[in-house]
Amino acid sequence: MGTRVTELHCKEVICIADGQRLGFISDVELEVPDGQVLAIVVPGPCRFLGLFGRKDDFIIPWSCIRRIGPDIVLVDVRPDECRHPRKKIIWIP
Asked: pTM value?
């Protein structure tokens, strides 16, 4: 049974090692020529009341996903090892 990328969007990601809630899936990294899913992206937690942006994103390799349920995704990864700096977008008018 397959899963569509749109079905993954907004599912909660939980680390099975310590039960920590990492957040909700916002994006997926794909290998373009093959169409293979490389990783899921979970935005980092908000900083002070959401006024100062977010902390680093979690980029979780597809191999670390253990179970995809109807509303959650269980992963076996240490949160500190999968943190990556957020990409800053600069708008030039």
From this structure: 0.75
91 pLDDT more than 90: no
d(CA 35, CA 84): 23
Residue 40, SS3? Answer: strand
Number of neighbouring beta carbons within 10 Å of residue 39: 19
Strand-strand pairing, 72-75 and 12-15? parallel
Cα–Cα nearest to 57, from 84, 25, 81: 84
Q: For tokens 């008018």, what's the residue?
A: 93
Closest CA to 8 of 65, 73, 74, 83: 73
